[in-house]
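User: Second chain of the day. Same drill as before.
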Amino acid sequence: MKVVVAMSGGVDSSVAALKMIEAGHDVEGVFLRLWDPLAGRGSRCCSLEDLEDARKVAAELGIPLREECTSRRFFDEIFMASLEAYAGGLTPNPCVVCNEKIKFVELARVADDLGADLLVSGHYARNEEGRDGRRHLFRGADRSKDQSYFLHRLDQERLARTLFPVGGMTKSEAREIASAAGLPVANKAESQELCFVPEGTSYAQLLEAWLPDRVRPGAIVDREGRSLGEHGGVHRYTIGQRRGLGVAAGVPLYVRELRAGTGTVVVAEEKEMMVHRFEVRDDTWIAGDPPTEAFDGLVQVRSRHRGVEARMRRRGDRLEVLPAQPMRRPAPGQAAVFYLDDEVLGGGWIV
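Assistant: Same format as last time:
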């Protein structure tokens, strides 16, 4: 079977390619260049060093490696869109959008060009066909590395054509396999930051460089509107942030609300950060049709959030989420992903 493997130059995608070769498939690697070096320092996930590592692994495995440039679309749809969201007081999740609109779309295009049957990536998630004939997405076996949250917007067409060979492994097992096979990236470190934020730089600095007209300084106030200080821009803050507020009140304060229109940052004590409900827009559903009745499950509001039990119910074009217990206020712009046990049901954007 002809297989296209997304090779990033990291250990996970390298092991995914190795497993496909061991399974007897005709494998070709694809390196997606998301960032154009002419636009500034390269991103963390597709640097020249990563490309060289991918080439070394492909040579070791004896497979061809194809390079595809998607930097124009990435710049517009992910990089600039994320900065615009930060400027608007949101906390975006560019990795989710990139998987939905860039990575797996481009991989499918390449696979079509090559006449390949399957797309393969090194994500820590499990993709299985159920008795109902549908594809079902589950958490990766290594919960500490689980990436199903970032994949929740993939549809049945994409999942039916995709494999995640490392999804049933732990990270340490993947490294052991890479080491035993003599792959040069077996001990390569991995970044936990946004891919388009260069080392030594923050997303706030990127926004100030690319969108200086969107920087809006203003006041830091409490819930009653009392001024506690000044700040250099709402883009420097996110909901739930405690450190770096620059105000002293005698008690710990957290960012509760960002009002981009007026440049106001609202802070509150921890007890005032708890919510009993929130809403989600633009929801998608891997597991089946959009729900019309209320249902219970687990909602995860950040990639490393443990998730909380909640009831979800339809409210027009939005979904209302009612946590079983009051929870810390989630950040608008982030993804809320719904699970039943380890299965991803669907998700949407927190408003």
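The first helix runs from residue 11 to 22.

User: Great, on to the next one.
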